[in-house]
Structure formats: C-alpha cells, structure tokens
Amino acid sequence: MAIYEEYLGRDRDSFESYEDCCKNYKLTWKADFNFAYDVIDKLAEEKPDKLALLYVANDGTEKRFTFRDMMLWSNKAANCLKKLGIKKGDRVLLVLRRSYLFWITLLGMHKIGAIVVQANDMLKTGEYIYRCNVGGISAVILTGHGKCTEIYDEGEGEYEYVRLKMVTEHKKAGEHWIDFEEELEKASDKWTRPTGKANTKATDPMMMCFSSGTTGYPKMIVHDFSYPLGHIATGVFWHRVVDGGLHFTISDTGWMKSVWGKLYGQWFGESAILVYDFERFVPKDILGVLEKYKVTTFCVPPTMYRFILQEDVASYDLSSIQHCCTAGEALPSDVFLKWKEITGLEIYEGFGQSETPVCIGTFYPWNKPVPGSMGLPAPGFNITVRDIDGDECKQGITGEVCIKAPTLATRPRGLLCNYNWSKEDTKEKWYSGYYHTGDTAYRDEQGYFHYVGRNDDVIKSSGYRIGPFEVESVLLEHPAVLEAAVTAYPHETRGQIVKANLVLREGFKPSDELTEELQQYVKQNTAPYKYPRIVEYFDALPKTFSGKIRRVEIRDRDIEKYKAEKRALEKFTSD
Q1: Given pLDDT bands bounded at 50, 70 and 90, which one contains residue 514?
Q2: Per-residue model confidence (pLDDT) at position 334
Q3: Mean pLDDT over residues 414-420, rounded?
Q4: Which of 21, 38, 254, 528 has the greatest CB tally within 10 Å of its CB?
Q5: What is the C-alpha separation between 212 and 483, in angstroms, rounded?
C-alpha cells in the first residue's frame, strides 16, 4: 500500500470516475501530522532501500539517496541546527539553488518545527534586507555558489533579527559565516521526535514564502504542517507519479513550485525525485537527462516545452515517460499538438499558486486534455468563477477564480493560512467564504476552466475586456513568432490598447510588413477588436526565475514611456 492511502483511505485507481473521486476524496490526518516524521521516516522504516532522490550535478556527478538516507541526513540536519541554536518557530531563510542540501535541511527543519523560508540566489542586497526584516528571519543558510554571501553582506548592520549566518561550500566559510556542510557532517544521525510542547501540531506554521510581488512589496504567504497533504492531489493525481518511478520537475528551490513538483506529492506517491543542478536551462541537456535517467513523469512550464521543441526531440529516446504536465502559465495549443505529434504524449495542464497546491487541472485517466483549458477543479477543491459582486458567472463569462473556504479549519488542505501573519491582510483576499485568487477565467459548456489572466493583466479597451492569453495563442500559431506576451498600453481615449511583445523565430526579422501581417492574422483568427495596435520586437522577453514571462515588467516600463511622451507633448504644446 502506498503511503498516501493512509491519508486518503483508498488507492487512486479505485475511483471509478472524476465525479466519484471528487465526491469521495476525503483526507484524514493526526493532530500532530508532520511530513518528515509521518511520511519520510515511516518510509525509511518500511522501505529503507527505496530510492528517494537522485541528484545530478552540472558536471554529471551523481548522488543517490534512499528513504533511509533521507531520514538519517535530516536527523543530522536537525541536530546540527539545534546545536547552533535553531528552535521551534524560528524562521530560517534557505537560498540553496538546486542543491540536495535543500531537501535534507528542509526535512531537518520540519523535525525541529522551525519555519522554512525559501528564496532564490538572484536576490539583491535590498531584497535580502526586506525579506529578513519583514519576515523576522533569525538565521540564513546561503549557497556558496556565486556571490550570494558578498551581496548579502553588503547589508551588514541593517538586519534586525538575523543571529546566524551559514554557508555551503567550505571555501566561503570564515569569521562571519559558519561552514554548514562541516557542521552537518559532524552532527549525529540519531534523533527522537520531541514530545509535549516541543512537538509540532498540524496547525503550527511550517513554511513561509514571499509572493512574486507583481504589485507593491512581496507578501508573506504562510502554510502550516497540513500543507503537504494538499499535494497528494498534485503529485499522485495530477503528476500521476509512478510508485518506484522517477519524477522530474524543473524548478529552483527558491520557489514554491519546487515543493509542488519536487517534494511532498511525489514522495507521498513513493516516486523518486530527479534533481538536475544545471547552471542555465539548455534544452538539449534536458532531453539528454530525460533519456539517460529514464524519467517516468515530467513537468515544466509551457515556455520550456516551447524551447525544448526547437531541438530534434524525435532523436531522443523518451519512451520511459508515461505522463507529462505543465503549469505556471497557460499552455498554447500549438505546443500541446507538436509535443503530442513527436512524443505521442499529451500534456496535462494544471493551475495553482504559491498560496495553493494544484487546484485546477486535467486528471488522468478521467479527463482528456483540452488545448487552451486548465481543466477541472482538483479533488478536494470547490471552485467557481465569480463576478465583481460575488455572484457566480454564467457559462462563457469571465470572472475571478474563487476557492470555497468557509473557515481556516474547513479550508481545503494546501490552501494558505494567512498573509503577513495578519488577519486584516488576509481578509483582503479571503472573505465571504471564498479565497479570491486574483486570476480570471471562464468555464465552457463542459465545465472546463479557461484561463484569461491576472486581474491586473486583463486589458480594458473601449469597454471590452481582453485576456492576454487568447491573443497570445493566436500570435503563437503564426510561423514567425517564437514567444509572445500581450500587455495593455495606456491610451488617451480607449483607456488601454492591446500591445504585442514578440520574439521572432530564426530567419524572421522585424519590419512594418511583418507587423501588418501579424495584425491582420489576429483579426482573421479572433475577434477583430482584440488585435494588437502596437507590436514591439525583442531579442528576449523578461522572465521570472521559474520561467514565467513578466508582463508586469513590460507594462510598468510602457506606463513610464507613455507618461514621458505625454509630458513631452504637453511641454511642446505649452511652448
């Protein structure tokens, strides 16, 4: 019996249909549930030699960890951190890239009851200061890779709560930085679960992350120790991980996507996790890894699928892959169709946030992927599309995606506990019995959700509401377009107009003729009012570290450009 069945009460293949699964998907857990003890340590006892994690360094060096290894190394991490003064409730910032030390350290922190705070290694000094001070960070563990410690130290004297600084890679240790790997090696691998107040409860805070901050400063998103249970739906039902297989999700550990795709749900399904610690994303390298290690389940953002498809995919043996998924942004239909044509595999789309596990998706074998659709609500989630007045939208009408969550106690597992440790801030997004995602969509006649965009991404032009994805999808079908981001550009009379920001395929060059051709192409393949009145060409579009296109960066730059043009015009007319 797979370990997730202890919490679900049955095997995933025993459900007869999607409807049966949604109706009878009922999780149960102990009041002191803790993933490190109740999943990893239990697997270590029952299946000690089963592969848990395969780490592949950029130079090809490999490290293999069984579930027993993960138990022993996380025990060492717990002892190491406890000796250094880390205790239950302390907030520890982890900046560990794709190092296997992330998994070991995180599990050790779970055993102590310390709060994991993820961050990426591209932060600047001011961002470190903000996160550490606002987040009440008492210790940091930074990668010795690159200049992370130097950048962090530029803020020395401005960190209000940090009392411990640890670094990986021995060369960076010194007077002010503790050699984390040396301390870890020295620590005992014997650890006993605490009792009484020192033990954790499922309702205790376990993890905190900072939102991507598309507007204003990043918010703190808080999850408790029941959060991993929500990822049974992610790993077991959506990723469809194979018991004893090998799952590969591409994500840096600085983002919540890493615990979506490289930790909780996959280990609930007893699949090993592949960690490829590359320096930069190279599609040929990814294809080589898929082939060499015989990956069974695979998940990357749509943008990465698109770049992988620029290579000779058919020349690689990908026959080991049984299931493919994607999330992070909407999946263009041309990517879906080309991947299926070459590999025979369909891509199963999913939707979620740092605040949630997968909450909408296409769930094999009950639902077939529909290009352009995110899918249906995940088991355990009641989701609707609601208008500005809070009423449920009719079929085909765009509204906000809202998750039914009457109270903190009755919310679906995996949904956040709060924002910023603040009732007031939480109420801005969680009210009237629903958590409001800030993402917009509509439902078709089969009930499938179709993504439109973030509330602030939707373009409001001359009374029309235009979702960027629907225009991008058309543009990406044109043979000249490799990447597309559609944004709003300010306009004096229309309010906003549609702007297309494009990267062209090799062999195509920007020109007025191509711009006209693309505008006509959009008019011919979707409602004419959606066509881009402005087209700008780029060598590369701005992206987050997880591969999402940063429309907000383009939009903010265009707003400043519009303001400058307006000031120049006003000055000219006044002169």
Answers
A1: very high
A2: 87
A3: 96
A4: 254
A5: 22
β-bridge partners, 485:
501
Structure token pair of residue 139: 């210790």
Task: Please give the DSSP secondary-structure letter assigned to residue 37.
Answer: I
| Nearest C-alpha neighbor of 414 from the set 240, 254, 197, 236 | 236
Token pair, residue 214, equals: 């598309």
How does pLDDT run across 20-52, given as a tens digit for each residue? 999 999 999 999 999 999 999 999 999 999 999
CA distance 112 to 100: 19
CB atoms near residue 2 (< 10 Å): 16
Read off the pTM.
0.85
Inter-residue contact 96 to 55 (CB < 8 Å): no
Residue listed under structure tokens 């439902």? 443
List all residues 6 or more positions away from 554 whose beta carbon is below 8 Å from its beta carbon: 485, 487, 501, 541, 542
Q: Which residues of 63-80 are buried (b: 16+ CB within 10 A; e: fewer)?
A: eebbbbbbbbbbbbbbbb
Cβ-based neighbours of 495, under 8 Å, separated by 6 or more: 460, 461, 462
User: Would you say the C-alpha torsion 462, 441, 262, 254 has a positive or negative sign?
Assistant: positive
Of 116, 119, 118, nearest to 106 by C-alpha is 116
**CA-to-CA separations, 558 to 25, 470, 536, in angstroms, rounded:** 47, 21, 11
Do 207 and 257 contact (CB within 8 A), yes or no? no
- Taking phi first (over 0 means left), then psi (-120 to 50 degrees means alpha), and beta for anything else, what does residue 9 get? left
Q: ω before 332 within 30° of 0 (cis)?
A: no
Residue 89 is classified by DSSP as T
Distance, CA of 209 to CA of 258 (rounded, Å): 12
Query: Does the CA dihedral 363-366-371-376 come out positive or negative?
Result: negative
Residue 214 reports pLDDT greater than 90: no
Lowest mean pLDDT among 71-75, 292-296, 491-495: 491-495
Q: Mean of the pLDDT values across residues 15-23?
A: 96
User: Span 224-247, mean pLDDT?
Assistant: 98
Mean pLDDT in residue range 363-391 = 94
Q: Reading across the β-sheet that carries 297-299, which strands appear in turn?
A: 62-66, 51-57, 272-277, 246-249, 297-299, 323-326, 347-351, 360-361, 376-377
